[in-house]
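Notes taken during the Thursday session

The instructor put the following on the board and asked us to keep it in front of us for the whole hour. The protein is Formylglycine-generating enzyme family protein. We were told not to look anything up and to reason only from what is written here. First, the residues (173 in total):
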Amino acid sequence: MVWIPSGSCELGPVDGFWIDACPVTNGEFAAFAAETGYRTLARREPDLAPWAAYPAGRADHPVTDVAWVDAVAYAAWAGKALPTEAEWVCAAHDAPEAPGAGAGTRPVAAGAPNGYGLYDMFGNVSEWTADWHRASGPLPMKVIRGGAGRLARPYPVHGYGDDLGFRCVVRTG
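Then, after some discussion, the predicted structure tokens were revealed:
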């Protein structure tokens, strides 16, 4: 984990916090699932493509096809939490675009880190945050950040996709 000091960013001030240097990987999530018996929403779907959950040979790629509830379950198991949108934005400061953005996943930390030492803030996968999207309407939506875009996007809490993962934080206060 990497320390992000207290400060302000475009979304306002944040207290200092620890954040995973990389998105959670298939290998890390598979260890959680094996220990707890947890099944993601995607793995409960009978017609899910067999490659979609913890693909063989891709343990070092970010886990994908995880809904917000799946990310929260992993974070709780790990003694962590999902970052707020403001925490995520502050941590992403000066992050370079990852190589191959928009072309499927690649191993985490394959590109250059930002000034804090965080990898894959942009490119590789979009990431869940803890914040509700303000204009979600009747369908509950959370904010996702990163991936191929630099803007916040709404995503249904029970939705998942092959370009959607997460990383975790630990708050000290």
